Amino acid sequence: MAGDMTKLTLETIARTGFGHDFGSFERSRPHPFVTAMVGTLSHAQRRNVLPPVLAPLLLRRSERRNAADMAYLNRTVDKVVAARRAADARDAPGDLLDRMLDVAHPDTGERLSAENIRRQVITFLVAGHETTSGALSFALHYLAGHPEVCARAREEVEQVWGRTEVPAYEQVAKLRYVRRVLDESLRLWPTAPAFAREAVCDTVLDGTHPMRRGAWALVLTMLLHRDEEAWGDRPEAFDPDRFTPAAVRARPPHVFKPFGTGARACIGRQFALHEATLVLGLLLRRYDLVPDADYRLRVAERLTLMPEGLRLRLVRRAG
Questions:
Q1: 131 counts as catalytic
Q2: In the chain, what are the domain boundaries?
Q3: Catalytic site residue 33?
């Protein structure tokens, strides 16, 4: 499931945001862009845990590989941008790439530089698929393992969408129970597992914990999402009704943070939630989800959290 969901979410952000087809489903192995992307981010993670004086010595070979990966990412995106610039403006799809190329700052008239656009596109492609694929994979795992939840979610899909119609954009947000399934999956396994904050001045946390200016605090999101004081006696249990409007109002406001927090929280949150809800609705309407009876959830810690070895059998539903 994780591999197929990664292909799906990469194609979704690439096609809707930048009009590019990576051909993911025609490949038996990940697209080289994905391989290079994983390589660069893994390299950055390794650098972050090594003292600066040791990193150049211990990562010499990795530095060369990283340079090659970065060059490939840059070339790929530069080709996509060049093709769009060369296309007839009358055929422009009006997507995110068009806006980057054509829209000027309303006050200064400044436009994004070529280098800025390249970096923005890479960022959106990376961040726009990896976390969403994990969220979908965990949600499908829980749906397959909880038949009563799956039946309730499918009933909502059929009531809101019908059995055959192509759902309209505004109908996706009406799948409120499906969204609760997604939120509860993100609570248990937030695919971005932590966020950090730096003290801008000397301060004291909660009246007892001094922090000097420049010190960092790391919030482990999974632990925040399983705090019994906020989530009750059985925070490990999967229960989408934790996200009914009444339950949400009864909780403190900052105990659910799967997309980070503050001004630097995920810029693509609404896109990801809409995409994931749509995908879950379509899969529920079209297929029965049959789990492997012997599978026990294992979580891989790669760039994000992802279920490891998860396989489901999908049986096409009649009608």
A1: yes
A2: 1-128
A3: no
